[in-house]
Design a protein that fits this description.
Radius of gyration: 16 Å
Distance between the termini: 38 Å
Structural class: mainly alpha
Strand content: under 5%
Low-confidence stretches: none
């Protein structure tokens, strides 16, 4: 990715929900976003592993139950290729069903995520 002299965080554009192919540049983009966030809020911990990138960033307390669940789900996806494929298929099915609102999309993924966490 070419070096940029100035990066900025801009307003969130409300776009329809979508499921995109993995882009290996996402890790570098996430690192840069993390650098921007910590530059403006040094006490904030940013955790990530991992054209224009659209990022969905959760800003939550590091020790809250939601953060723990998000990390557990992330770790399960990392260790289980079949789960990753099933999650992508579920997200694609949600989009194909006609759901385009991002809140509805997130809620539709909920049962899959809950089941993955209960395994």
């Amino acid at each position: 990715m070419p070096e940029q002299t100035q990066l900025r965080i801009s307003l969130y554009k409300h776009l329809p929900a979508a499921c995109y192919e993995y882009d290996p540049r996402a890790v570098e983009v996430a690192r840069r976003v993390a650098d921007l966030i910590t530059a403006h809020a040094p006490r904030v911990v940013v955790e990530h592993e991992g054209k224009i990138f659209r990022l969905h960033v959760h800003v939550i307390a590091i020790d809250c139950e939601e953060a723990t669940e998000l990390r557990r789900f992330r770790d399960r996806l990392r260790e289980d290729a079949n789960l990753r494929r099933a999650y992508i298929a579920r997200k694609q099915a949600i989009i194909q069903s006609g759901i385009s609102d991002t809140i509805d999309y997130s809620e539709a993924k909920g049962p899959f995520i809950k089941e993955a966490l209960d395994l």
